[in-house]
Amino acid sequence: MEEARRVAAAVVDPEVPVLTIDDLGVLRDVRLEGGTIVVTLTPTYSGCPAIDQMRDDVLLSLTAEGFGDVRVDFTLSPAWTTDWMSEAGKAKLEEYGIAPPTHRAGERSGPIPLSLGVQCPRCRSLRTREVSRFGSTACKSHFECLACLEPFDHFKVH
Amino acid sequence: MNAQLNDAELAESAKATEAAPATTRRDAASIAALHDAEAADVHVSVDDVDLAAELTGADASTTASPDVAEYAMRLGDDALILSQRLGWWISRAPELEEDMALANIALDLLGHARSLLHYAGTATGRSEDDLAYWRDEHEFRCAWLFEQPNGDFAHTIARGLIAAIYMQELYTALSASTDASLAAIAAKSVKEVAYHRDHAVQWTLRLAGGTEESRARMLVALTDTWPYIDELFRDDELHERLGDVAPLPSSLRAGFDEVWSAVLAEAEIAERDYVNPKVGHSSGGGRFGNHSTHLGPILAEMQVLARRHPGATW
């Protein structure tokens, strides 16, 4: 079981390949049911097309490691949040050139919207501007840095 | 629903390629793993996985009752048809950022439709694709708002504003459903719809406060679209039977009106600017399969491939 969990946790996100599905918080559970390894995943956004690829990759990785009987289940509840992203994952994102989520999702729920500065992953400046709430994938928004003038993706707090 | 996904995915991957050419969908190690698996003759392969059995609610084994299925189909059809409409904008939006925004919104809605229609299908042993591709016009349950044509950009924004405010009120209330699957889908969807609402509000303010031309178009769009609001909030016998499973549509109206009024006040638009007293509310029989003339053509386009080539995959 430990081995199965280790293998499943090492599968990477096909759209942000520096993150594992464990870093991302998409891997919810690995358990043994009878003789079957059951892996539970949750999609980031409802329409995320990467989830099919993640399922395939989990099946292939575990099969390649000799686990013959594998099933991947999906769950929507509880709904995925960037709060589940590991600190290691956030550091890897930034190194890759994507600004990680700036704060916990729960902190934004009150009547006063909280908007923290997003730091440019290249020059570290906080002088940045949101260009569009919607970026190259569902989970990211599009920013530009006013200091170094580079565009960059920001992993949205969700 | 693969046809839609593919369009959105294509648009997305085309853009992703510009930004990060080094990103590949499947790395060498996983291809090697596939080959190894085949060599070892292990019986698990990707093809064995039933695509239709993918996205489920809280519990994959749950079967919806006929009433719950009918309700889930209404919501699923709203999301599916609006998603299909928005897909048209891909590569045609006024600017690149907007192209991506509308594609992202369409993709979220398609995800909601898949979850809802999958759940609806459990009552009759049909898959989400069976429901999307093999029902005829009178079997669809979407409200007329979602069938309305894209019009100009202002019309798309006006329709999107009404849809997003309504969906946010609906999914917030539905998160407390006594039906665990509906509650899970609603709790997931409401977080995404919040972005859609922000997007529509920002554009409403920008168009209303922009040039004379943009304001005039926004007012025409609101005038053309407001008659379809009322249908969203009509109660019928299904809601009475569902009890605590789903909120009464009429109970969502106050929350909708509050947000709607606040947005239009900010945009300096008064009710007399878009409500024409000579035009009443639409009769809107979408929940019972009586549709506007706009649904047929969009279904023909959405369904033709699946019907001409049953079982085709790509």
What report would you give on this structure?
The complex is a heterodimer of chains A (158) and B (314). By secondary structure, chain A is an alpha/beta fold. Chain A has two domains: 2-80, Fe-S cluster assembly (FSCA) (GMP Synthetase, Chain A, domain 3, 2-Layer Sandwich); 91-155, no CATH class. Chain A contains four helices and seven strands, in the order H-H-E-E-H-E-H-E-E-E-E. In chain A, the strands form two sheets. Chain A has a four-stranded mixed sheet with strand order 4-7-6-5. In chain A, strand 1 and strand 2 (36-41) form a beta hairpin. By secondary structure, chain B is an all-alpha fold. Chain B has a single domain (51-308), classed as Ferritin (Up-down Bundle), CATH 1.20.1260.10. Chain B has helices at 2-19, 28-39, 66-87, 96-121, 128-133, 144-147, 153-174, 180-208, 212-225, 237-242, 253-266, 295-308. The relative contact order of chain B is 0.13. The chains are: A alpha/beta (158), B mainly alpha (314).
Question: Which features would summarize this protein structure in a list?
Answer:
heterodimer, A: 158 residues, GMP Synthetase, Chain A, domain 3, 2 domains, four-stranded mixed beta sheet, three-stranded mixed beta sheet, B: 314 residues, 12 helices
